[in-house]
Design brief:
By secondary structure, the chain is an alpha/beta fold. Helix content is 47%, strand content 18%. It has a ten-stranded mixed β-sheet, sandwiched between helices. Strands 15-14-13-16-17-18 form a six-stranded parallel β-sheet, with helices on both faces. The chain is globular. It starts with 5 loop residues before the first strand and ends with a helix.
Length: 503
Amino acid sequence: MGKRREIIIVSNRGPVTYQRGPEQVREAKRGGGGLVTALGGLALHHDVTWIASAMSDVDREIAEESHGRAVEERLENGADYRLRLLAHEPSAYDQYYNVVANPTLWFTQHCLWDLVREPDSERSGLVEAWRNGYAPINAAFAEAALEELSRRPEAIVFFNDYHLYLAPRLVRTRAPGAALLHFVHIPWPQLNCWRVLPEEITVAIHDGLLANDVVGFHTTRWRSNFIQSAQSVAGAKRISGKAAVSHAGTTTCLSARGISIDPDELAALVEDPRVQEHERRIIETRPEFLVVRVDRTDPSKNIVRGFRAFELFLEQHPELQGRVTMLSCLDPSRLNIPEYENYLEAIQREAQRVNERFQQQGWTAIDLQIEDDVHQSIAAYKQYDVLFVNAISDGLNLVAKEAPLANERDGVLILSENTGAHEELGPFSLAIDPFDVRAQALAIYEALTMRADVRKRWIEDIRAWVSEHDLAWWINGLLHDLDDCRARRGEPGDPSAKAKTGA
């Protein structure tokens, strides 16, 4: 991991959420999402202060008791770190999270809008939510980061994702020499997708990101899209011969590194007794073949269209009816947002319709499991013959990297070309257009009938790639990119040199 560094991680969600256990004793429960796993590894090798939102009532108690100071904590991996929780004003946080971040920025960056009807900025109160929610919450994060920087001026400030686009500019203005890194974990779409938002918002998003030394994306595709939109929206200038742009006296280097997993952590999870119990159930009930999908119930995951593809596959191959099931392990997501609640209902209706159409004694076409159960998902990883990933758009998709490492059946990966993972794993998978149901049905059949030697070679190639390009590779790469970018400041052709010298 190289030399030990001071790192201030800034993200909406933290690594733990506090709750009351037996006898009202406070307990720390690991936070959800892949971000916690990805960033938790930093604390093993660096001195980490983590700034995050207080999510529970007990979180808010701790935030008030600590008077804005970080508290000492320990991750499941044994790493010590400092956690600073921000107790936001509830109505501001609701506007920040439930109006601006989700669904607006999420839908925009995944190009999910039904443009005939949405987005309607006036009806949704988007601009008001931006000014009264998103901007103040970002200001609170920036203020906390600046306070931590005052104690640790050499620290790297590591912003994460679409919740915090404004914070870097606020920090840069008051700490011009600070080392700022921002990783965008979701897709960066083409310019036309940004045009749906009010200009005030789009310009501020780009200006905020361009205050960083380095902005990281999962793929060269997302990076190229950002360069285009930064030039068009913010007037940034492309630096010839480099993956970098200049804006407002700052040179921003642009990194393309797909986030990854910790193979050792996954291997330990595979052996968990709870995983083995789920696997026993799957083995006892599975038919000859198993198509597996593991997703959140998010519209971007394209689950309904995937069920229709599986329906068409069964229709085209009646000889396989009763011999293959699609096991769908789905984590209910953001159900307080109407678009997500409606999509979950559509998922349930579609699965029921397909199952009723192909009803057979002792066989269910789509085995729909809707619950947040990582152990069930890992058990499904072990047993798939086909892993089905047909996302409309996905920053990366860690399932495509995790599942092959756990699989015991030389399973074949079907992978949407609109996932970030496709840039890395495309040569070892069946690529699909996420909008082409017929092509997806064909891919399912091709995967199930693929020669054994090809199946084995492909999954071994995925394992080799992911093992080499693991989580440590991702973290080290980003830190290297940051050091390299800051070291190159002042080179001929770098506009930031003139800005710093006053030339």
